[in-house]
């Protein structure tokens, strides 16, 4: 390890640090913007070091808290229900396919796999979900279309079952006259916890971040909006959160409503929880990417 | 020979049938458990495939899916009567090609950099941080881009261009800038994920090759050039072909959310997916959106099959099927 090596390492670290900063700083700008005084924001612009801080935007959000909390509640509900459903549907299908001597195994595999090669696209999907299953303006519209089960996770988990649940243990359990469902719940699932966590993570993130289902399926029912839908609406319609109560409370304080700041503040509210828990799931996240990467 | 074969066959068949039946019985509870998954895939994935035939109908919400009358290829000729048909196909394909080339070069470079780092702790930190943009939705990304480019007070205008004496640019009204902006945003959001995939491949390489090269006095650069890159080549080829298979798909969020669905930017930001959305949800032009979606699905399927066929030729184990 000579001097040259140290120099190379320094340069490598420098480049990686710049890239890492490029990944973080935009979020810092977002947070700073939400904390900038509205007048400063409009006259001096978005800055990493605003000349005047203000909590007006957050105060405003607090006065419109009912709507925000409601949207938060929707996000949490949809994520919880969607992810739970997704994990169970994925597990059951994957476990079925992990049985090597399963009758019709090839046909069922093809049935699952073919959905990765060919899909009907958004329009028929939209027409079927709305015209036949009537999910428009219901919670079901946020949970069921597209996100509830995917072939990719099924294949990921099936591979995990076949390579990490030893045949001998299953045979031994059968000799002890354990039922097939008993084997699944008592042996296969406990042995597959890391993969279940990964699938739950991918699915949970997809639900937490989803705004497309809301865009297509929530036409009138704004009470069902998730945080992402609120953000999406506020892009074009900043007045979305302006309840008359909130406006009058701000007017009585003689403060102008911090429109730009509010937008940034809601974005921050959606970003922060994910950033806080990211370090805890970072390991299984990377693992999931690595396992699925090449085949994905 | 013949007689002995005849003598055994029915016996084996009977045994097989019995075991087939007993296996069917044994696994019956598992089939039942997976039944909801079957039903979901039928509803969510197979019914829309059949629904593609709607592209040949004159769909009306009043008559519904089944009662709407057939109208041949009218939707398609109507679609190609619009100037958007050409624009959206061109944009979708061009963006995909640019993303593919730049994304791969960028990701492979970062993966090699990560691999050359000695300090394991820092390596861990970099891996964690470069994935952060991947965690957030395109809505959030749209807000961030707006903080940089929005109005005259966006960061780029107020803190870079103006102090440099340049004139502020009204980004959200000038379509010509958006191919560059969208490419940067796409790379920023996705490079971490792709780098980790390539890095995982790199870590799996036979370390003795590097040791031997070092004994022979090869420099780091020589090692990268004659060991790392050649070993990485199959993975790059396969991932590239797979991406080519998604040639007609685009990231709806990137093209809809980041330019804020701004009409002045449509010429450079319209892809098949955003067109389908606009035709269906904003213009109530179901016919055109059905036709565009139909072409996207069918062409996508053909390209995926071709891509897989090619991967099989390169490396059979890496083919999807």
Summarize this structure briefly.
The complex is a heterodimer of chains A (296) and B (321). Chain A is built from 15 helices and no strands.
Low-pLDDT stretches of chain A: none
Number of domains of chain A: 1
Mean pLDDT of chain A: 89
CATH superfamily of the largest domain in chain B: MetI-like
Write down the CATH topology of chain A.
MetI-like fold
Low-confidence stretches of chain B: 1-5
Write up this protein:
The complex is a heterodimer of chains A (296) and B (321). Chain A is mostly helical. Chain A has a single domain, classed as MetI-like fold. Helices cover 74% and strands 0% of the residues of chain A. Chain A has 15 helices and no strands. Chain B has 321 residues and is mainly alpha-helical. Chain B has two domains: 47 residues; 233 residues, MetI-like fold. The radius of gyration of chain B is 27 Å and the shape is flat. At the A-B interface, α1, α2, α4, α5 and α6 of A face α1, α4, α5, α6 and α7 of B.
Characteristic key phrases:
heterodimer, A: 296 residues, B: mainly alpha, 2 domains, 73% helix
Lay out the secondary structure.
The complex is a heterodimer of chains A (296) and B (321).
Chain A lengths: L2 H32 L3 H7 L11 H8 L1 H34 L6 H13 L4 H11 L7 H4 L7 H14 L2 H9 L4 H12 L1 H17 L2 H6 L9 H10 L7 H9 L6 H34 L4
Chain B lengths: L1 H50 L12 H4 L6 H7 L3 H33 L3 H11 L7 H12 L5 H7 L16 H26 L3 H9 L4 H25 L7 H6 L8 H4 L2 H11 L3 H29 L7
Helix pairs in contact in B: 3-14, 4-8, 4-10, 10-14, 13-14
């Amino acid at each position: 390890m000579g001097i040259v090596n140290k120099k190379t390492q320094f340069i490598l670290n420098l480049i990686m640090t710049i890239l890492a900063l490029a990944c973080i700083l935009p979020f810092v700008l977002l947070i700073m913007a939400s904390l900038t005084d509205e007048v400063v924001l409009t006259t001096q612009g978005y800055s990493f070091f605003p000349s005047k801080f203000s909590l007006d935007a957050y105060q405003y959000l607090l006065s419109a808290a009912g709507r925000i909390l409601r949207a938060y509640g929707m996000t949490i509900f949809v994520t919880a229900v969607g992810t739970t459903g997704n994990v169970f549907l994925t597990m059951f299908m994957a476990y079925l396919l992990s049985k090597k001597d399963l009758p019709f195994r090839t046909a069922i595999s093809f049935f699952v796999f073919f959905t990765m090669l060919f899909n009907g696209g958004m329009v028929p999907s939209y027409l079927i979900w709305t015209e036949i299953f009537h999910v428009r303006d219901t919670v079901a519209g946020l949970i069921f279309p597209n996100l509830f089960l995917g072939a990719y996770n099924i294949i990921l988990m099936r591979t995990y079952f076949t390579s990490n649940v030893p045949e001998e243990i299953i045979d031994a359990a059968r000799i002890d006259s354990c039922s097939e469902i008993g084997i699944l719940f008592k042996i296969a699932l406990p042995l597959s916890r890391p993969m279940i966590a990964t699938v739950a993570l991918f699915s949970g993130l997809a639900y937490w971040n989803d705004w497309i289902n809301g865009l297509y399926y929530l036409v009138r029912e704004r009470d069902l909006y998730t945080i992402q839908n609120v953000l999406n609406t506020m892009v074009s319609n900043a007045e979305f959160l302006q309840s008359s109560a909130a406006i009058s409370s701000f007017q009585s304080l003689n403060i102008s409503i911090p429109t730009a700041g509010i937008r940034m503040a809601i974005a921050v509210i959606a970003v922060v929880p994910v950033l806080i828990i990211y370090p805890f799931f970072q390991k299984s996240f990377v693992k999931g990417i690595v396992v699925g990467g090449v085949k994905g | 020979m013949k007689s002995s074969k005849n003598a055994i066959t029915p016996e084996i068949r009977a045994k097989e049938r019995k075991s087939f039946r007993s296996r069917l019985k044994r696994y019956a509870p598992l089939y039942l458990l997976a039944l909801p998954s079957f039903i979901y895939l039928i509803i969510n994935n197979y019914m829309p495939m059949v629904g593609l035939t709607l592209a040949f109908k004159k769909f009306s919400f009043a008559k519904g899916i089944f009662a709407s009358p057939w109208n041949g290829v009218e939707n398609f000729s109507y679609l190609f009567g619009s100037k958007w048909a050409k624009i959206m196909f061109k944009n979708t394909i061009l963006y995909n090609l640019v993303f593919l080339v730049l994304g791969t070069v960028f990701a492979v470079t970062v993966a090699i950099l990560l691999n050359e780092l000695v300090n394991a702790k820092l390596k861990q930190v970099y891996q964690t941080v470069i994935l952060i943009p991947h965690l957030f939705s395109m809505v959030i990304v749209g807000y961030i881009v707006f903080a940089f480019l929005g109005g005259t007070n966006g960061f780029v205008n107020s803190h870079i261009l103006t102090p440099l004496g340049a004139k502020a640019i009204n980004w959200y009204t000038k379509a010509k800038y958006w191919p560059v902006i969208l490419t940067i945003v796409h790379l920023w959001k996705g490079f971490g994920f792709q780098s980790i995939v390539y890095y995982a491949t790199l870590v799996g390489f036979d370390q003795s090759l590097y040791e031997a090269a070092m004994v022979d006095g090869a420099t780091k650069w020589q090692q990268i050039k004659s060991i790392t890159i050649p070993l990485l080549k199959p993975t790059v080829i396969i991932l590239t072909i797979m991406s080519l298979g998604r040639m007609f798909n685009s990231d709806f969020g990137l093209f809809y959310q980041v330019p804020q669905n701004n009409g002045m930017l449509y010429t450079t930001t319209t892809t098949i997916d955003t067109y389908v959305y606009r035709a269906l949800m904003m213009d109530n032009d179901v016919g055109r959106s059905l036709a565009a979606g139909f072409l996207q699905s069918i062409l996508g399927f053909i390209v995926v099959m071709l891509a897989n066929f090619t991967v099989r030729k390169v490396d059979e184990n890496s083919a999807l099927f």
